[in-house]
Amino acid sequence: MSFRIEEKLFIRNYAVSDFKNFINKKLAKKIFEPRVVKSLYFENLKMQMYDDSIEGLTPRKKIRIRNYPEQKIDNYNLEIKFSSVEGRYKTKKKVKFEDFEYLKRNGILDNQYGVCLPKLYVSYVREYYLMNDVRITIDKDISYQLFSKKMTINDPNIIIEIKTHFKKDIDSLTENFPIQIIRFSKYCNGIESFKRN
């Protein structure tokens, strides 16, 4: 198990070029081409994962199945994100398309949250950068869709995630950021978007 430190930056579209200029000056390197990421989040009937995330309670989890729709091969991963007082970590397990279909119909049994059923799709385009031990991703064209409905809500904002195993690396990078660091969850923001609508 390897804990990591993760910070998220919430920015407007017009600030992206300034941010990219900032990390380019810090010699950040692009490590992958941009790609579409689509995740289906699972939740129990009491919406406890959402509530725990909003309250910042630990330990808590998020359960999702992620894939990359533009890839020609089936590539589904069952991912569980853990947040604890020690830090955050993620487990990942490949699942076949037929297993994905089964889990959509029957849900996932979790030892903390019980039976979790498919709740929300989150899609976005992700760019990937690396600077020393710090991984930086930029997520744009974010959209949310409830599993039970066809309605989609687009999010005009952009989320930057900074991930590393050493807090000093984040501190040295973010101390000069012209952007506010916030606690942000695409899953929670998606749920709240539908509540507002």
Brief sketch in words of this structure:
With 197 residues, the protein is α+β, with helices and mostly antiparallel strands.
Give an overview of the whole structure.
This protein is of the alpha+beta class and 197 residues long. The protein has one domain: mRNA Triphosphatase Cet1, Chain A (Alpha-Beta Barrel). Helix content is 24%, strand content 48%. The chain is built from 5 helices and 11 strands, in the order βαβαβββαβββββαβα. It has helices at residues 16-25, 48-55, 97-106, 167-174, 186-196; strands at 5-11, 29-43, 60-67, 76-84, 87-95, 108-110, 114-131, 134-146, 152-155, 158-164, 181-182. Strands 1, 2, 3, 4, 5, 6, 7, 8, 9, 10 and 11 form an 11-stranded antiparallel sheet that branches. The protein starts with a strand and ends with a helix. The model has no long low-confidence stretch (mean pLDDT 90).
